[in-house]
Amino acid sequence: MIPVKICGITNLTDAQLAAQGGASAIGLIFYKNSPRYVSMEVAKEIIASIDGQIPVVGVFVDENIDWVLEIAAKAKLDIIQLHGKESPQYCEQLNVPIIKVLRVDSLFDKSILKDYNVSAFLFDTYKKGLPGGTGDHFDWGLISDLKLDTPIILSGGLNIENIMLGIATVNPSAVDVNSGVENCPGEKDEKKMTQLFNIMCKTMGKNSFFQKLKNEKINV
């Protein structure tokens, strides 16, 4: 059972399509340099429209901790996803469920994983100058042998053509899809999302994984 998070949601229509179509969570990006950035006001509207159907993940990149906590509280985010160079010490100051993103290339240092006390790791594609949303997948073989107690979320260029192979190679606890179901950055494609959910219907776990993360607290 592989839950699917649809990230980069920017509007009410796409949020409802994801929630009603089969997503286990949605992601809202609070990084202002992203073409998928959402303001606090828009985020609150989206979250209100979801009305607790599925967890909402807030995505941040190297932000001030107080600001992250303020946004999380005001927007009523369920989970925080850290997509920058946040240290283990930074993560430990956030007593909320955390997904720590690590970008992977041939130089990826697996030893850093042991330093983080987080709810889950998300592995994305490394591309210099871009914290995410590259649309490309990395060499999944680089993490296929990981033996971790912390759950793994696979991301980076996943789409209807490659997602099942990615799952078979990495065996993640969940997957994160963004550009693979878009018309353009920030605008989801209903047909692509439907196709994705149809492909995943035999493996998707509707709420269990992200609901569990939502209820976790980091031990500090």
Order of helices and strands: EHEHEHEHEEEHEEEHH
CATH arch. level architecture: Alpha-Beta Barrel
Strand content: 15-25%
The SS-based structural class is alpha/beta
**CATH fold annotation:** TIM Barrel
Shape: globular
In spatial order, strands of the major sheet run 1-2-3-4-5-6-7-8
**Number of domains in the coordinates?**
1
| Average pLDDT | 91
> What characterizes the major β-sheet?
8 strands, parallel, barrel
Report how far apart the termini are: 31 Å
State the CATH superfamily name: Aldolase class I
Rg of Cα set? 16 Å
Q: How many DSSP-defined strands?
A: 10
- Total helical segments: 7
Give the C-level CATH assignment.
Alpha Beta
Unreliable segments of 5+ consecutive residues = none
Give your account of this protein's structure.
This protein is of the alpha/beta class and 220 residues long. The chain contains seven helices and ten strands. The chain has one domain (4-214): TIM Barrel (Alpha-Beta Barrel). The protein has helices at 12-21, 40-50, 65-75, 88-92, 163-170, 190-200, 208-214, and strands spanning 4-6, 25-29, 56-60, 79-82, 98-104, 120-125, 152-154, 174-177, 182-184, 187-188. The strands form two sheets. Strands 1-2-3-4-5-6-7-8 form an eight-stranded parallel β-barrel. Strands 9-10 form a two-stranded antiparallel sheet. Helix 1 (12-21) runs parallel beside helix 6. The chain starts with a strand and ends in a 6-residue tail after the last helix.
Keywords:
alpha/beta, two-stranded antiparallel ribbon, TIM Barrel, 220 residues
